[in-house]
Amino acid sequence: MSNAASRQRIQDELAFVLHSYPFRETSLILEVFSRQHGRVPLVARGARRPRSALRGLLMSFQPLALNWFGKHELRTLHSAEWMGGQPQLQGTALLCGFYLNELMLNLMARDDPHQRLFDYYQQTLQRLAREDDHAFTLRCFERHMLQELGYALTLTTEAKNGAPISPEKHYRYILEHGVVAETADATQGMPVLGRTLLDMAADDYRDADTARQSKQLMRMLLDHHLAGKILHTRELMRDLQKL
Description:
Number of helices: 7
Number of strands: 8
Structural class: alpha+beta
Helix content: 25-40%
Distance between the termini: 46 Å
Order of helices and strands: HEEEEEHHHEEEHHH
Shape: elongated
Largest sheet: 5 strands, mixed, barrel
CATH superfamily of the largest domain: Recombination protein O, C-terminal domain
CATH architecture of the largest domain: Up-down Bundle
CATH topology of the largest domain: de novo design (two linked rop proteins)
Radius of gyration: 20 Å
Number of domains: 2
């Protein structure tokens, strides 16, 4: 089946709403993250009408089964069904969820499926709802997201010679190059402990140095891939001094 033909009608596709905004008088434009088709733009015609079957369904962070049709870039949502099973995000967890959505909106190309990232996103929403270590949950997601989008971090070996990272040594992480041993005249990249790199590779952020340095390192890497785009949720979280 051609790509154009495969876009004509999609049924019972598991998806999450990443963003929505009003369109004309009664409709919505949605950016959804679907498991089989990746990020897809949809128009939900009449969704803002009081008696619309879609009204109240198209919320972020809730798993939906969507039916849509169309072969153009903007496709038309036909129906949606709430799948349940995801607790509502509240407080800081809700803000973290919006941060994840904004990251993916800015880094994911449309119509590029990432099934493993979809599954990890769904698991991350569950973690945000039931756990308190939101910063650690975000670090895990950021690393896995970059890996799934083709920007994997090499955290266990040096870039230059492939030598294994030693937890006791000091290193520098250089953009588009990787980890190098720190020398007296090192000026490039970000200083980072070997222990931090190994902890990140293991998704273990319990150590205070690891928590601090991993946040700095992920910020540097994400800023590089965002290429100047501003994340409004990050600015808000910084103002609130939560993460």
